[in-house]
Amino acid sequence: MTRRLPRAGRTPAAATLPPHPLSGLDPAFSRLVTVPERDTTLERTWHVLDNGQALEELGVQPVGTILCVHGNPTWSYLWRRLVSQATDAAARGREGWRVIAVDQLDMGFSERTGVVRPLARRVRDLADLTDHLGLDGPVVTFGHDWGGSISLGWALDHPELLAGVMLLNTAVHQPAEHPVPAPLRLALGKGILGAATVVTPAFLETTLALAHPALDTDVKTGYRAPYRGAARRGGIGAFVADIPIDAEHESSPELDRIAGGLEALEVPALMLWGPRDPIFSDLYLDDLLGRLPQADVHRFEGCGHLLAEDADYAGAALTWLADLRLETSVPPRPLVEARRRSDRDLASQSSDPTRLAGSRSLVPRASTGGSPVAPWPDGTRPLWHYLDELRSSEETALVDMAPRSGEPLVVSWRLLSQRVRRLAAGLDRIGVRRGHRVSLLVPPGADLTAVLYACVRIGATVVVADAGLGLRGLTRAVRGARPDFVIGAAPGLSAARALGWPGIKIATARFPAVMARTLGVEHTLAELIALGSDERLPAEPSPDDVAAVLFTSGSTGPAKGVVYTHGQLSAVAHALFVQYGVGVGTGLVAGFAPFALLGPALGARSVTPDMDVTSPKTLTAVAVAAAVAAIDATVVFLSPAALANVVATADGLTPADHAALRGVRTFLSAGAPVSEPLLAAAARLMPEATAHTPYGMTEGLLMADISLDGIRSAAQTDTGAGGVCVGVGAATTSIRISSLDRHGDATGQPSEQADVTGEILVSAPHVKDHYDRLWVTDRASRRGVPHGDRWHRTGDVGHLDAAGRLWVEGRLPHVIATATGVVTPVGPEQLIEAAPGVGRAAVVGVGPRGTEQIVAVVETVPGARRVGLAPAALAAAVRASVAVPVAAVLVVPHLPTDIRHNSKIDRSLLSRWAAGILSGGPMRRP
Q1: What would the pLDDT profile of 543-585 be if each residue is shown by its tens digit?
Q2: Which of 889, 850, 849 is nearest to 870 (CA)?
């Protein structure tokens, strides 16, 4: 296919320097370079941003060059922050990277050639420039949009110089089964191309509108600067016309060459992605990851096509490069497991004979009829090992109190093992392979348990997101995880269909043919069981294989996918056994989904109580008693929200219910700190049980533990630092604190020193492996940790006391940095909530960091009808209750969340809201 430039773009024009000033662009970095064009006698003049001269003036020898290539319709202005930050870093004594950001010919302030320049020629043009500059290695390319393909073409052609590749949203291949993105199809329409891209600035303005949040006017002016007038926009139209929409297009062979060549490219790679991009969606990210599986990835949730404007891409890239340099100069070291204490040591350290109560025996019984499963090198065993060892047992494995039939469903070990093995074999028959991702949209119960264990048995990666995230949160989670298969009940599959979630659909039940077609269902669990009736299974996964992506609750920002290996999940089960004695013979009531799913891994018989898992407050005391009675349970695990309603509905218990609850020996509640009165009220319902409240998070499900007696003891010895005591490190866990500086940042060396407030770090064999496609977040969670160990920065702040107990004082982003020091929120909030007339309270900072003023936002008793400043008497009572100066007290009918604990209140939102109120804004609810 032969193309011509759009009419207005045929007139050549000379290169020029950008006008000054342009927002954020230092003119000292701009220069013009005249380059001989190969195979012709012509010379072409390029505009580039280049900090090479600045580094020379600083006396810095660059460690390498970052070669940046923009796409359409931007120019080197896109990379201005990277140029500046790289230069600033060199000035501060950090690694010095030379950054060369080009304006491609016919674009930006480079020469308008008036000649068609298809993809292959643009790759060659870039090589002409770098040859002329005498570029030495190491070089790391950095491309965006169609500049991504061009930069990768250059990378493939210069292996002797290449040290790595970095990409913002881009693509190298258009899957045949997916159409070209709608905005590009529209721009390529007959009679539209020239008008939309050259004659008018419509294409440019549409692109600038893709920023999140919207660009400032002066930044838009910067992007518009080289494209004033149709004669300057010919390259924009030519770039659009160069998109290979079919195999006949003249640029198709070159794009195919680049796409195919990536599969042999073994250099480190970084992909920084904006998921809200309507052009280069996650579909293209997945394709690139298939070609560059070694790539580190970070998806900036909420960001889009102009990621360079939406997020700190430059900081992420420079941090990655700094790590890359270390990795290339220091031999890689294997991941060393965190130190672990033996079960015997733990038992000898406990003088409480009930600490490991709740199991009929701490020593697993002999297996019943199955085959023993050999332990892994670390002493743990696969999650499914009891399903093999007890496969002939008719004893109860699990009970579902609320199945579709309406009657409790009792499943034996024999039936559960058979169901898991047949489902696993069936999944294997339809092509589910090790490493494939399977999203589970199944409510807790027998089906979910069987499907989960079937997936992990064949090495598939299960993707589990809490339905409590809501449709928007679930959509973000599922799309971000990009499952290959989706297994769901009708509600989940309906949402998947309506919202375009990826993956081959498998239904938990048979649907009418029309409904199945509508939902896109290709298989059912019954079909898989039939297919796998011979129970022939593939080889088992190894401990280091990925087993699951578990999404966080989303209460502290967009839900994050937390990746666990098989070994790490098995270590979770081991920690529960060591800490609480949950094992073979234990009856476990699990009103908290993660622990319901671990029941079979522990050899425990487990029961899911009758409740709506998306609304924990639907669990009643009667339902708990019924679940306890169904399996003679000795251990009960509930979320704090469920626990509050259980206590509130205790009047409905019958004498038989009370008798069942007296059989409970260990009671646990976790998910957020639990108050002493609530835990004590629950303990009165289970008078023979030792009450515990574990501390943990999705990234580490059991990190610390404290009993009700421990809470009472801690309250008597509280030194006044404040916070919620969550006890000592649980089972195989170590805890350290990274102290805060005066700005509220955790910069201190992690230590176990008492009474030092800082960020809480945890280490255990069952701590997460990494965050899924969140390289920046994952690296931040490991920053400054002891070398070689698996430590996780929790984002919580607190301190250790002299007895080694951990006190949680809030979240790191909610620390208030005042002129006289940092203030953590939980301690003052606890004191304020004890003041007369106050229900719940949140303490936030308003003003510049380092000089923030403390504002208390309170719910009153009785409740206020509207937002406003607190009455004088209430404000005085609040100020008198705390030792820190409170600048203002605001009352609200409700704090901005219906989640039940202050740890879940969005204090960042409250801070912004309070600032608006105090600066004269309208008295609206937050």
Answers
A1: 999 999 999 877 667 889 999 999 999 999 999 999 999 999 8
A2: 889
CA distance linking residue 831 with residue 158, whole number of Å = 65
pLDDT per residue as tens digits for the range 327-369: 433 333 222 222 222 322 322 333 332 222 332 222 333 344 4
Amino acid identity of residue 731, one-letter, is A
Query: Rounded to whole angstroms, how far apart are CA atoms 380 and 543?
Result: 9
Q: 412-559 adopts what CATH topology?
A: Rossmann fold (3.40.50)
How buried is residue 854: exposed, middle or buried, by Cβ count under 10 Å (0-12/13-18/19+)? buried
What is d(CA 631, CA 909) in angstroms, rounded to the nearest whole number? 45
Give the number of other CB atoms < 10 A from CB of residue 788.
12
Cα–Cα distances in Å, from 719 out to 322, 408, 463, 751? Answer: 42, 50, 43, 20
| Residue keyed to tokens 């690139």 | 288
Do the domains 7-327 and 412-559 sit in the same CATH topology, yes or no?
yes
Residue 856 to residues 327, 844, 895, 907: CA-CA distances in angstroms? 47, 6, 11, 11
Strand blocks (E) in 769-909: 770-771, 791-800, 806-811, 816-818, 821-823, 838-846, 853-860, 868-869, 888-891
**DSSP per-residue string spanning 558-621:** S--EEEEEHHHHHHHHHHHHHHH---TT-EEEEESHHHHHHHHHHT-EEEE-SS-TT-GGG--H
Q: Three-class SS of residue 168?
A: coil
- Do the Cβ atoms of 562 and 699 come closer than 8 Å? yes
Position 890 scores a pLDDT of 95
DSSP state letters, 213-263? SPPPHHHHHHHHGGG-SGGG-HHHHHHHHTS--STTSTTHHHHHHHHHHHT
Could you report the per-residue pLDDT of 511-525, keeping only the tens digit for each?
Answer: 999 999 999 999 999
Cβ neighbours of 647 (radius 10 Å): 17
pLDDT of 453 reads 97
User: What is the token pair recorded at 40?
Assistant: 């012709």
Tell me the CATH number of domain 815-918, given options 3.40.630.10, 3.20.20.140, 3.30.830.10, 3.30.300.30. Answer: 3.30.300.30
Q: What is residue 329's predicted lDDT score, i.e. its pLDDT?
A: 36
Q: Tokens 């949009």 belong to which residue?
A: 145
Cα(789)–Cα(339) distance, rounded to whole angstroms? 8
Q: Show the CA angle centred on residue 325, arms to residues 321 and 329, nearest 5°.
A: 165
Q: Could you report how far apart the first and last alpha carbons of the chain are, in Å?
A: 58
Domain ranges of the chain: 7-327, 412-559, 692-812, 815-918
Query: What is the CATH number assigned to the segment(s) 7-327?
Result: 3.40.50.1820
List phi, psi (to 5°) of 268.
Answer: -60, 150
What is the SS3 assignment for 77?
A: helix
- The burial of 247, by beta-carbon neighbours within 10 Å (0-12 exposed, 13-18 middle, 19 or more buried), is given as exposed
CATH number for domain 692-812, candidates 3.90.550.10, 2.60.120.10, 2.30.38.10, 3.30.750.24? 2.30.38.10
Q: Output the CA torsion 403→406→410→414 (10° steps).
A: -60
Residues 169 and 143 sit within 8 Å (Cβ to Cβ): no
| Burial class (CB within 10 angstroms; exposed 0-12, middle 13-18, buried 19+) of 828 | buried
**b/e 302-326 (16+ beta carbons within 10 angstroms → b):** ebbbbbbbbbbbbebbbbbbeebbe
Identify which of 815, 800, 837, 812 has the alpha carbon closest to the alpha carbon of residue 884.
815
Mean pLDDT of 167-180: 86
Distance of alpha carbon 493 from alpha carbon 501, whole angstroms: 9
Over residues 314-327, the pLDDT tens digits come to 999 999 999 986 44
CB contact at 8 A, 546 and 564: yes
